[in-house]
C-alpha cells in the first residue's frame, strides 16, 4: 500500500480495517457499483460487508485469489462468487455462441442471419486468424495495480475503448430487441452505435439507452434528401452525438445462410422501423408514423407473416407495402460515392465516421475529405468473402505516413471491428493503431440468451478480460499500448 490508496489484489484486509478505495475512487453511479463488485462488497466505512472473516462460508470469500482491482476486472470476483456459473453458461466465446444457437433453435433463419457470413466464411475465419499472427510480450514487476482503461473519442471520455457495433433487426433475436441492447449499454456507460436497420425507432432506442453512455447513429441513407435530412434531424433531437456512415453495404452480400432459407426480414417490414417511424417518409406514403406498439415482435416468422398477409391483416399488409417503398430508398443496389458522403458531412454538425473502409487509399481519401473518423471493418466477413481481414487491413493502413500524421494531429480517429471476441483481441487491435473497437456478434449472442442482462454479461466478459490482460502484460492505460505494437507485440513466427 505504498501510495496509501489501495490494497494489492491478493492481500486480504483484516476485518474492521479501514480499506482505502480501489479505482475508481468513488462509485459515481449505480452502474459503477454494478461494474465493480469490489465496491459492492464494502460497507459504508469501507469494511468488507458480505465476505471476509465474518463470512459464514469461507469458500465464498473470493477477495484473495479472485481479487482484481479495476473498474471492469472486478467482475472476476462476481464470477468466482457465483457457484451457479455465468449467466451465459460460460465465459468462453465459442460456448456462448453454441448456447445462443441452441436458444434460437426454433428460428433457424434468424440464427443463420446472425451467425452467417458471406460466401464460404473465409473472411470471417481470416478475421479471427489474423489476431493469432500477433503475440503480446508481457512485461513484469511493474506496478500496474491501478488500471484505468478510459478512452476519449471525439472529445468525450468513455469508461473503456469498447463500443457496441450496429446490428440490425434485433427483434429477430429477442422480444426486447434493440431496447435491451440500449439499456445494457446505458447501464454500463458503454457507447452504443444504433443501426439504421433497427427494428425499433431511433427515439425509443434513445429513451431505453438513457443519458449515460453516449450513442451514435449509423445511417443507411435514403436516396431522397428529404428523408435523409429528416433522419439526421431526428437523430440530433434524440441525442445521437456522432453519425456513422456504413459504406460497405450498398447491397447485402452473398450470404448462403440467408439465401438458402429465403431469410430477408426487411421485406416483411422487420428492421425498417427507422423508416416507418419517420414523419417525412410516412407522410409521402399518406400514413402516420408507426407507433412503438406496431414494432415487430419476436420471433420473426416469415410463414406466419405470409398467412396474415393473405388474410388481409391490416398491419401486416401495411408493413409489407411500406417495406417495398423504404427498400427503394436504402440498401437497394445504388452505389453511393464520396459526393454523397459530402452531403451528410454538410448536414451533420457532429463527428462523421465512415464504417467499412479497408484500403489504405480509401482511408487517405477520407482524410482529404475532412472525415472525422473511420471504422476499419469488413462487416464481420458478411460482405466480400475472400477480402482482406480487418486486422491485416489495419496493419497496412497504419503504415501510411499520411494516416499516422492525421491520427497524431488528433483530428482523425481510427476505430476497428470484425473479429473482436476477447480482451487480448482488443489489446492487439489497439496496439496496432486502433483507438477504439466495436463489439459485434458476441453481444448479440448475449441478447439471444438473456436479453439486457445477457448483453451486459457479454460486454463485461470482454472488458474484464481486457483489463486483466492489460495489467498482466504490464500496462496501466490504453495510452500505454495504443499504436505501440513495436513495443508490446511481436509478429508470431
Ligand atoms: C446480424 C448482423 C447485423 C448487422 N447489421 C449491421 C447494420 O445494420 N449496420 C452496420 O453498419 N453493420 C451491421 N453489422 C456489422 C457489425 O456492425 C460489425 O461490423 C460486425 O458484426 C463485426 O464483426 P463480428 O461480429 O464478427 O466481430 C451487422 C452484423 C451482424 C452480425
Written account of the structure:
The protein is of the alpha/beta class and about 500 residues long. The chain folds into 2 domains: about 1-85, no CATH class; about 100-270 and about 330-490, TIM Barrel (Alpha-Beta Barrel), CATH 3.20.20.70. It has 22 helices and 12 strands. It has helices spanning about 30-35, 35-40, 75-80, 95-105, 110-115, 120-130, 175-190, 200-210, 225-235, 255-260, 275, 280-285, 300-310, 315-325, 340-345, 360-370, 390-395, 400-410, 425-430, 440-470, 480, 485-490; strands at about 135, 150-155, 155-160, 160-165, 190-195, 215-220, 240-245, 350-355, 375, 415, 435-440, 490. Strands 4-11-10-9-8-7-6-5 form an 8-stranded parallel sheet. β6 (about 215-220), α9 (about 225-235) and β7 (about 240-245) form a beta-alpha-beta unit. The protein is globular, with a radius of gyration of 23 Å. The two termini are about 40 Å apart. Flavin mononucleotide binds near residues 113, 114 and 166.
Amino acid at each position: 500500500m505504498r501510495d496509501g490508496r489501495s490494497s494489492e489484489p491478493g492481500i486480504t484486509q483484516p476485518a474492521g480495517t479501514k480499506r482505502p478505495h480501489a479505482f475508481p475512487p468513488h462509485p459515481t453511479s449505480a452502474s459503477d457499483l454494478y461494474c465493480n463488485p469490489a465496491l459492492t462488497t464494502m460497507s459504508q466505512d469501507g469494511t468488507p460487508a458480505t465476505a471476509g472473516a465474518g463470512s459464514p462460508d469461507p469458500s465464498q470469500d473470493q477477495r484473495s485469489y479472485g481479487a482484481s482491482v479495476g473498474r471492469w476486472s472486478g467482475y472476476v470476483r462476481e464470477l468466482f462468487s457465483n457457484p451457479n456459473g455465468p449467466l451465459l453458461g460460460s465465459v468462453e466465446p465459442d460456448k456462448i455462441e453454441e448456447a445462443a444457437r441452441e436458444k434460437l433453435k426454433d428460428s433457424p433463419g434468424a440464427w443463420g442471419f446472425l451467425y452467417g457470413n458471406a460466401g464460404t466464411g473465409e473472411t470471417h475465419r481470416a478475421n479471427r486468424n489474423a489476431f493469432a499472427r500477433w503475440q503480446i510480450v508481457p512485461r513484469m514487476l511493474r506496478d500496474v495495480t491501478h488500471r484505468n482503461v478510459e478512452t476519449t473519442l471525439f472529445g468525450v471520455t468513455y469508461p473503456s475503448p469498447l463500443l457496441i457495433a450496429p446490428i440490425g433487426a434485433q427483434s429477430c433475436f429477442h422480444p426486447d430487441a434493440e431496447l435491451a441492447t440500449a439499456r445494457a449499454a446505458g447501464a454500463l456507460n458503454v457507447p452504443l452505435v444504433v443501426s439504421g436497420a433497427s427494428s425499433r425507432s431511433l427515439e425509443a432506442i434513445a429513451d431505453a439507452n438513457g443519458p449515460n453512455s453516449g450513442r451514435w447513429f449509423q445511417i443507411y441513407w435514403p436516396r431522397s434528401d428529404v428523408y435523409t435530412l429528416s433522419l439526421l434531424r431526428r437523430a440530433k433531437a434524440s441525442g445521437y452525438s456522432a453519425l456513422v456512415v456504413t459504406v460497405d453495404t450498398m447491397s447485402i452480400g452473398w450470404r448462403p445462410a440467408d439465401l438458402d432459407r429465403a431469410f430477408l426480414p426487411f421485406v416483411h417490414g422487420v428492421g425498417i422501423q427507422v423508416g416507418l417511424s419517420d414523419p417525412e417518409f410516412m407522410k409521402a406514403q399518406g400514413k402516420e408514423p408507426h407507433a412503438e406498439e406496431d414494432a415487430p415482435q419476436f420471433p420473426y416468422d416469415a410463414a406466419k407473416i405470409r398467412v396474415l398477409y393473405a388474410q388481409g391483416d391490416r398491419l401486416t399488409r401495411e408493413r409489407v407495402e411500406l417495406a417495398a417503398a423504404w427498400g427503394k430508398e436504402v440498401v437497394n443496389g445504388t452505389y453511393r460515392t464520396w459526393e454523397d458522403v459530402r452531403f451528410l458531412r454538410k448536414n451533420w454538425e457532429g463527428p462523421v465516421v465512415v464504417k467499412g473502409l479497408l484500403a489504405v487509399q480509401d482511408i487517405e481519401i477520407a482524410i482529404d475529405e475532412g472525415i472525422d473518423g473511420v471504422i476499419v471493418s469488413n462487416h464481420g466477413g458478411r460482405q466480400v468473402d475472400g477480402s482482406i481481414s480487418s486486422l491485416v487491413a489495419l496493419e497496412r493502413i497504419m503504415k501510411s505516413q499520411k494516416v499516422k500524421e492525421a491520427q497524431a494531429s488528433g483530428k482523425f480517429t481510427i476505430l476497428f471491428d470484425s473479429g473482436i471476441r476477447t480482451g487480448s483481441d482488443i489489446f492487439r487491435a489497439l496496439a496496432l493503431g486502433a483507438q477504439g473497437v466495436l463489439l459485434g456478434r458476441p453481444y448479440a449472442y448475449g441478447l439471444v440468451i438473456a436479453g439486457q442482462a445477457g448483453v451486459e454479461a457479454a460486454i463485461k466478459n470482454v472488458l474484464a478480460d481486457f483489463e486483466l490482460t492489460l495489467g498482466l502484460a504490464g500496462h496501466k492505460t490504453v495510452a500505454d499500448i495504443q499504436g505501440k505494437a513495436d513495443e508490446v507485440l511481436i509478429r508470431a513466427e
